[in-house]
Amino acid sequence: MTDVGLVALVLVGGMVVLMLIGAPISISIGLPSAVSMILVLGLENGASTSAQRMFQGVNSFALLAIPFFVLAGGIMNNGGIATRLINLAKVLVGRTPAPLAQTNVLANMLFGSVSGSAIAAAAAVGTTMAPMQAREGYDRAFTAATNVASAPSGMLIPPSNLMIVYALASGGTSVGALFLAGYVPGILWGAACMAAVWFYARGHRELRAPVRASLAEIGRVFVQALPSLTLVVVVIGGIIGGLFTPTEGSAIAVVYSLLLSFLYRAIGLRDLPRILYSAARTSSVVIFLIGVSSIMSFVMSFTRMPQLIADALFGFTDSKVVVLLIMMLILLVIGIPLDATPAILIFTPIFLPIAVSYGIHPVHFGIMMTFNLCIAVISPPSAPVLFVGAQVSEVRVEAVIVRLMPFFLTLVAVLFLVTFVPQLSLWLPGLFGLL
User: Fold this and answer.
1) Average pLDDT over the chain, rounded to whole?
2) 3-class SS letters over 300-362
């Protein structure tokens, strides 16, 4: 067996076996990668090179943005910011059909844009919205499905940790360009969920009573939410304008959200150890994943595995459309059992060279991958956002899955649009001269 065949067998077989027996995903990636390195370079060189690649993989100033954004999201989740954004969303969509469900969608978009986490959005927004919708007669399964489907919009609307991970895995794609590129697809995600809610409301006229708010109330709620919204303007505007790097912007987000939460008197000094511990645990998992994935990326590059896969695809078809469809299908399927972060780290080194060879811009491909994996995190049976949404709405997962299908099909249609209309992703970065 050739080196590449042996490496492929060890990598794929090892990851599958370890995941099936319940090993942590970092071990499932790292152990087969280290064994593959030893098989290719020998015991001494393989072990030392594995250690070096892990260190080099995490020795990045840009990588510091992830723990800072995670910490900022944790502070926001506990700091009363979600409540103010929900109130703003309620007055903005109060005259639409099924207004509380539409509020859920918009609130997830707003909160996701400042926290960058689908699970945090589903938990924070769902905990507030589910009881409100239950009192108004909304079906609990539909309430949970709306919350689950709209929560990942925050993984597209910046700041997004997934885009930072992709920037590192792709070898230096501009984080600022990726952030800007995520706005239109993220808004399309939210619009698709709102359209699905509108179709549901057509058959449930009891949910169509508009919530009317006076101009004075709208102004008061907007003023209350303005400091939270300003965070996005300051952080993203500063990154795009070149005032500071994404890492410096993430640190500013932590300080800003902390000051805001103290101002709202939603958290105190005694809450900080718990928030810091939670953020440290989440960040350490992501950073360790990046480290072990660096070993895998080196082994694949050393054995020319991406090039061999590209040659196989070229031999199968020379159609750009068919290749993109194959990639979309693989990402949708593999993203169900695999978390989005390791999926980005595993498949970016494999798929990106193939995509570039077909003339696909790395920024567009990054948004396509992120959109695919956002759909995967709500896809049954093993979707973390799905379980969180069902839990906060106090309903069985099986019932949520049935209500989720219209949202899922609508989002897949938008995925095709984002994939095959690259200007949806590239227009804003091009406008700001970041391509």
Assistant:
1) 84
2) HHHCCHHHHHHHHHHHHCCCHHHHHHHHHHHHHHHCCCCCHHHHHHHHHHHHHHHHHHCCCCH
pLDDT score recorded for residue 205: 67
**Per-residue 3-state assignment (H helix, E strand, C coil) for 169-211:** HCCCCCHHHHHHHCHHHHHHHHHHHHHHHHHHHHCCHHHCCCC
Looking at the predicted structure, is the pLDDT value of residue 2 above 60?
no
> Helices in 358-422 by DSSP H: which ranges?
362-376, 384-393, 397-420
Q: Cα(272)–Cα(43) distance, rounded to whole angstroms?
A: 45
Phi, psi (rounded to 5 degrees) for 266: -90, -25
Q: What are 58-90's pLDDT values in tens digits?
A: 887 777 888 888 888 778 777 777 778 778 877
- Beta-carbon contacts of 86 under 8 Å, excluding residues fewer than 6 positions away, are 103, 107, 111, 125, 128, 129
Alpha-carbon distance of 345 to 409, in angstroms, equals 27
What pLDDT is attached to residue 314? 66
Which pLDDT belongs to residue 210? 57
